[in-house]
Amino acid sequence: MEAFDGEVRDLLKGNANFRNVWIGETAAHFGAQLTNFLLPLIAVTHLAVDGTGVGLLSAVQFVPIVVLSLLAGVMVDRHPPRRTLVISCLARGGALALLGVFQAAGGLTFTQLVIAAAVIGTATVFYEVAYQSTLPKIVPVGSITTANGLHQATYSISTLAGPSAAGFLIGRLGLSSALAVTAALFVGAAISGAFLRGVEAPPQPRESALRTIRSGLRYTWSLRPIRDLCVQAGLSNLHEQAFLTVFLVFAVRDLHMSGATVGVIVGIGSAGALAGSLLASRLAARSTVGFMLTLGVVLAAAGLLLVPVVAQIGIYVVVLASVATVVNGFGVALFNVFAVSLRQAIPQESQLGAVTASYRLIALGTLPLGALLGGVLCDLISPRGAIWAVGLSYLVVSFWLMFSPLRTARTLEEAQELGRPAGPREPAPEPSRTSAS
Hints:
The structure is a single chain. By secondary structure, this protein is mostly helical. It has two domains: 1-195, Growth Hormone, Chain: A (Up-down Bundle); 222-420, Growth Hormone, Chain: A (Up-down Bundle). The chain has 17 helices and no strands. It has helices at 2-14, 16-46, 51-78, 81-105, 110-138, 144-173, 175-194, 209-222, 224-253, 259-286, 289-313, 317-345, 352-365, 367-381, 383-397, 412-418, 430-434. The protein is globular, with a radius of gyration of 21 Å. The two termini are 25 Å apart.
């Protein structure tokens, strides 16, 4: 842990660009978690919207990931990242601020909420692609894992604290003030992103956006390591979402747990995710990147499979299920830290946006399918049978990377070599990829 702390300290003290981007990312993460809790809460408590309406509100925030990810990759590759980071944060903050104004002026409508959700979801896609494409341009290759570990730790903390903070703000300050505070976080993120210096868009060929998207997809799929990561991430997210759906039904109907208890069990998994993100860099120093990557996804699957096992035992189910979600969270964080680091280190600089967007499209595009699959399995074979089926299936697909050349990569630099095509490779300007400023 001391080694990780030292590397983080060096990054934050010696790299102004990374420090400013990370501070902005932290504010944006907390703002996003508050938003994810606030919007459905407003729909349920202030507008008395039914379940279908709440589902529509959530879908509106998710649809832009599928529809706009590839376009976001094109835009990020063609424009300086600072512009995208600032505009996307201001758009989210502005949408929330308007909701606060409408609420103070006479009350919100569901239409206003849906429009705000669409704006926020769209801006989030552009922000995430821009941030993940910018990181390898401002951090040395050898420090990317540490930077992503810090990113994952921030995400875990905000996921754990966001809903509680949102409830506190509404209870103490009221809805309008809670929206204003959340908007202020995004404005703060925009200000921090504005301090990014010396990172410009790499030269791009003059071609249409559609042609650029096609070439980006071809390039992404041509890199065997990136292709394997895409497939593994898509399969993992499919099973994670299916399991979450099944577990909710199984815990309530078969184990007779309350909704609050289920929420606590799932939330405790964030503690495992935080531990995994903090330990990733230290573990990489003692082992290899390829091994830690594959270990992460296998642990994530094994953790979820423990849930039906402890339910079958029938004693201390809540405690043991919580331990299982901690194991799952640890594995997910470990996989994410190394997967994102590899995805940032392997591609050419001119293709970072395209690869990031393509990866996110495949990795996150399976989430709605997983939710639907989990519900269908509950109805077809019962919740108990479904939770076993999803857990066992997840464990099987978690070994996908065992057949990838990534398993032999000891460092990110070796992984870069695995990603080199057979033919000539476009030279990348090394100083902008590796220099710290």
